[in-house]
Amino acid sequence: MKGKIAVVPGDGIGPEICRSAVDVLDAVNKRFVHEITTFEGKAGGEAFEKSGKHLPEETIDICEKADAILFGAVGGPVDAQEKPKWKDAEKHVILGLRKKFDLFANLRPLRVWPGTESFSALKPELVKDMDVLIVRELVSGIYFGRHERVDTQTAEDVSRYSKDEIERVLRVAFDAAASRRKKLTVVDKANVLETSRLWREVANAVKKDFPAVEMEFMFVDNAAMQLVRNPAQFDVIVTENMFGDILSDLGGAIVGSLGLLPSASLNARKFGLYEPSHGSAPDIAGKGIANPTAQILSLALLLRYTYNLHKEADAIEAAILAAWNAGEKTKDLGGALSTDEFTACVVKKLAA
Ligand code: IPM
Ligand code: MG
Predict the structure, then answer these.
(1) Ligand 1, atom 5, residue with closest C-alpha
(2) Is the CB–ligand 1 distance for residue 245 below 6 Å?
(3) For the whole model, what pTM was predicted?
(4) What is the maximum alpha-carbon separation in the chain?
(5) What is the CATH number of the domain that holds 209?
(6) Do 260 and 245 contact (CB within 8 A), yes or no?
(7) Ligand 1 centroid to 314 CA: how many Å?
(8) Are residues 207 and 109 both part of a single domain?
(9) Known catalytic residue: 183?
């Protein structure tokens, strides 16, 4: 098949790990005889220096013309956040793209692959075969409500959800659960928040269309504890923007490294942006030590969701696993390989 992907590497380690993913895409093209090409768009600090904008129109154009976006990371060093080059870069680019393309369904799979249990912060027996999917609402809630400095002593952030916004992301989550182990946990804070009570109302209504899926409600504080105590009890978790942000970082610690977590953000016509769940890690940028796994797995999600290329996505996941099982690991996982060396191992396994 033919395809067109917009690659937006961004800042920090973004360019090096996107290069890895593009190398892997080349290997997939060869092995499965596809012609999926890539076009690069700039975003973040470098884009700001060239154009005065963190998310230039030109980049949005490139994204609009593509089948999907493969995104790296943006953001500068912690001590330079107030410089114009970096100020609000993440907000402008990441939240900008999410809103621009109405990418309301953020899928963050938490998978512990066989042989990687020791990467986890939890006991290996707790995470063995873990396969949980977090579905996070991504374009509404407190992230996109009114943010205001009421006066010098007071600030306000508004969390707002409409029924439609809740229903569409719940349907994505129910669909996912229906094709998996048929259990959906709706995470909220309905003992306090009115938006959560609306989520429950809508969830009870949507549930009627999915008789085969078992649905439960869980408060977010309890969900955080349950994820650490017994992650195997979950199949699909669906939740609002802010809770999903927090629970997915917790998920990163459970899987073992943020460097392993891919994500997909989809809209109603299944156009998607695929990115690692981690940031731009400026402290290790350019050193060749970044783990490209989350970026490569994000490419696998892209092939799966945008093109329905399941064999190809499976092959990428299998190649990463085969590399690890052969002891080929980057430094964050206790190995000795550089970003490029690990990528070359994955490419070689794909070609075999
Ligand atoms: C994420 C990130 C973003 C978010 C930041 C960078 C705005 O933490 O994708 O989880 O909070 O959504
Ligand atoms: Mg986050």
Answers:
(1) 90
(2) yes
(3) 0.95
(4) 64
(5) 3.40.718.10
(6) no
(7) 27
(8) yes
(9) no
Note if 175 is an active site residue. Answer: no
* Ligand 1 contact, 90 CB (< 6 A): yes
What percentage of the chain carries pLDDT values higher than 90?
Answer: 94
CA distance linking residue 107 with residue 266, whole number of Å? 8
Q: Give the position, in ligand 1's atom list, of the atom nearest the Cα of 263.
A: 9
Q: Whose CA is nearest to atom 12 of ligand 1?
A: 245
Ligand 1 contacts CB of residue 165 (under 6 A): no
Is the CB of residue 79 less than 8 Å from the CB of residue 20? no
Ligand nearest to the CA of 242: 1
**What kind and span of H or E run contains 255?**
helix 241-255
Task: Find the 117 Cα to ligand 1 centroid distance in Å.
Answer: 26
Pocket of ligand 1 contains residue 188 by CB under 6 Å: no
pLDDT at 256 over 90: no
User: Active-site residue among 26, 67, 102, 249?
Assistant: 249
Angle between helices 310-325 and 293-307 (to 10 degrees): 160
Distance CA 307, CA 99 (A): 23
- How large is the average pLDDT for residues 65-86? 96
Looking at residue 137, its pLDDT comes to 98
Which of the residues 161, 245, 305, 329 is marked catalytic? 245
Alpha-carbon distance 75 to 222, whole Å?
32
Say yes or no to pLDDT of 317 above 90: yes
- Looking at the CA of residue 106, tell me the nearest atom of ligand 1: 9
Same-domain pairing of 99 and 131: no
- Does residue 1 sit in the same domain as residue 97? yes
pLDDT exceeds 90 at position 11: yes
CA–CA separation, 296 vs 7, rounded Å?
Answer: 13
Note whether 256 and 130 are within 8 A (CB): no
Catalytic-residue membership of 221? yes
Q: 206 and 136 in one domain? A: yes
- What's the domain range around 47? 1-103+267-352
Nearest Cα residue to 5 out of 52, 68, 99: 68
Over range 289-300, report the average pLDDT.
97
The pLDDT value given to residue 231: 96
- Model confidence pLDDT, tens digit, residues 141-150: 999 999 999 9
By DSSP bridging, strand 131-137 and strand 236-239 are parallel
